[in-house]
Design goal:
The protein has 140 residues and is an all-alpha fold. The chain contains 5 helices and no strands. The chain starts with a helix and ends with a helix.
Length: 140
């Protein structure tokens, strides 16, 4: 108890001192870092950084859906067709990633490049998901 009182007394003494807050010369808050801490509003992103992040989230959601549908389809196939789908999917992923790298290359180094890349990934992934869903419907 005695130690607790000493700590509290020390804190009160320090807080009552009329000294300016110590700052290091030339430092400012990292605004980009502060913005990332704020909740993203992907319905109305206000900065290129927010647009990039929202586009990335859109791709990640599309990829999760693709993986769910892909796993569903795999579970319906016999072994030989399953292996063919796996091989096709590996090649498709390489195509998607390379194609989206190509699309992004037009804006290489620009702040919009991540948006171009992730939008391409999201759109291509959504198309593939639709294709796999059609396979699910047509396979008994």
């Amino acid at each position: 108890m005695h130690q607790l009182l000493l700590v509290l007394a020390s804190m009160l003494t320090l807080s009552s001192l009329d000294t300016p807050t110590m700052t290091i010369a030339g430092t400012t808050p990292d605004l980009a870092e502060m913005r990332l801490v704020q909740k993203l509003n992907c319905n109305n992103p206000q900065t290129q950084t927010a647009i990039n992040e929202c586009t990335k989230l859109s791709y990640q959601n599309a990829d999760k859906k693709l993986n769910r549908v892909y796993q569903q389809l795999l579970s319906t196939l016999e072994s030989s067709r399953k292996q063919k789908l796996i091989a096709a999917q590996v090649i498709w992923i390489k195509f998607r990633d390379s194609n989206c790298e190509f699309e992004r290359s037009r804006n290489e180094g620009g702040s919009i490049a991540p948006t171009i890349y992730f939008a391409c990934l999201a759109n291509t992934t959504k198309l593939r998901t639709q294709q796999l869903q059609e396979y699910l419907k047509s396979d008994p």
